[in-house]
Amino acid sequence: MTPCGACKYQRRRCGSDCLLAPYFPAESIQRFAVVHHVFGGGNVSNILKSTSPESRKWVARALAYQAEARVRDPVHGCVGLIWEQEASLGILKEKLQKAKRELAQYVGPYVMQKMIACFSDPLANMVDLQAPLSATVDDFDLSSWDPFPAWESPSSSRCQPPQADRKGKSVAPPS
Questions:
Q1: What is the pTM for the complete model shown?
Q2: What are the respective helix, strand and coil percentages of the chain, to the nearest 5?
Q3: Are the C-beta atoms of residues 20 and 4 closer than 8 Å to each other?
Q4: What phi and psi values does residue 164 have, to the nearest 5 degrees?
Q5: Residue 105 domain-assigned?
Q6: Tens digits of per-residue pLDDT, 97-116?
Q7: In a domain, 19, yes or no
Q8: What is the C-alpha to C-alpha distance for residues 131 and 133, in angstroms, rounded to an integer?
């Protein structure tokens, strides 16, 4: 039996009862390396043990995403990504308002009000945050979500991840 990515990284035997095997398969050593670097292997195991079995997939993915964000941006982590998304959302909202104002000049306010009422139902796109997680998300969504997009180019404003930790283990993909 081939060891899982976590056991390969830690150079230990991988038994059939390995807790990390379903979440860090053999081909994802790099994912576990980043998670191990940020959280530590024991902490990851303890977190997964204390989580219900049906939630462990999401917890493993969330840990991987947070670790990846922390390696990419050691200061802000996930919060930096949220700030960037909120800033780009604000810019897009401003552009939309400007476009609506320009369109209103040509079609008139009555036609514009009809168009806005027709195409923008604010309640249609809202998510019920009070609903239980199992009712809003299924395994199909989980399998299609990848928390590891391609690494950014060196010309971007974000920090590049370190190439190795202080023990000499590689924690980031080569550039």
A1: 0.57
A2: 55, 0, 40
A3: yes
A4: -155, 150
A5: no
A6: 898 888 878 887 777 777 77
A7: yes
A8: 6
